[in-house]
């Protein structure tokens, strides 16, 4: 949620949110079927409505290994505020270069 708020605050107008969890995707697409998390889903929908374009896509976890590595780093290291604005974690640049050249890299 904080990442969407940050994108909104940065005046980003078009957002594609990719999720790797089928259940999370279903909840975002059909929130009425998930009343147990209705508060979170309604809050997300309010934020999503602030964007000119907002789309939710289901993606296999291995498709975006950079995003997965960042999210694991954020939760493992308890970095609950965006550190990408400060240049990102030390391993990110080499990871992106490796992925762009077709290689695989581990964090």
Notes on the structure:
This protein has 107 residues and is an alpha+beta fold. The chain has 2 domains: 57 residues, no CATH class; 36 residues, no CATH class. Helix content is 45%, strand content 11%. A two-stranded parallel sheet has the order 1-2. The model has no long low-confidence stretch (mean pLDDT 83).
Question: Main traits of this protein?
Answer:
alpha+beta, 2 domains, 5 helices, 45% helix, globular, RNase H type-1 domain-containing protein
Average pLDDT level? 83
Rg computed from alpha carbons, rounded to a whole number of angstroms: 15 Å
Fraction of residues in β-strands: 5-15%
Helix and strand string, N-terminal first? HEHHEHH
Helical run tally: 5
Structural class: alpha+beta
| Overall 3D shape | globular
Count every beta strand, where a strand is a DSSP E run of 2 or more residues.
Answer: 2
Uncertain residue ranges: none
Helix content, binned percent: 40-55%
Order of the strands making up the biggest sheet: 1-2
| Head-to-tail CA distance between termini | 24 Å
Largest sheet: 2 strands, parallel
- Domain module tally: 2
Protein name: RNase H type-1 domain-containing protein
Give a brief description:
The chain contains five helices and two strands.
């Amino acid at each position: 949620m904080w990442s969407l708020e940050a994108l909104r605050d940065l005046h980003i107008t078009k957002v594609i949110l990719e999720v790797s969890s089928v259940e999370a995707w279903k909840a975002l697409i059909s929130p009425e079927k998930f009343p147990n998390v209705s508060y979170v889903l309604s809050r997300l929908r309010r934020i999503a409505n602030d964007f000119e374009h907002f789309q939710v896509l289901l993606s296999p976890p291995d498709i975006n290994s950079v995003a997965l590595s960042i999210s694991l780093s954020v939760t493992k290291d308890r970095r609950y505020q965006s550190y990408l604005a400060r240049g990102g974690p030390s391993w990110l640049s080499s990871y992106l270069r490796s992925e762009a050249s077709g290689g695989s890299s581990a964090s």
